[in-house]
Design brief:
alpha+beta, Alpha-Beta Plaits
């Protein structure tokens, strides 16, 4: 398992946070450990790549970047 931290741009309310959290949780083998308006900390299986997480966030209308492993 590996940990990743994402910065998510554009989340302005609790509904935005929940939408992104649900999108990340839909990625196979990903557990969201912490989520707030700044971004997310996730634990993912070794075969999950950063681009998988970024694509999930983009699919619900936000931009994301990996800021730390």
């Amino acid at each position: 398992m590996k940990n990743m931290k994402l910065k998510v741009d554009g989340m302005t309310c609790g509904s935005c946070v929940r939408r992104v959290e649900r999108a990340l949780a839909q990625v196979a083998e990903v557990v969201v450990r912490r989520m707030d308006r700044e971004g997310a900390e996730v634990e993912a299986d070794d075969d999950v790549e950063a681009h998988d997480l970024i694509a999930a966030v983009r699919a619900v209308g936000f931009e994301a970047t990996v800021v730390a492993p």
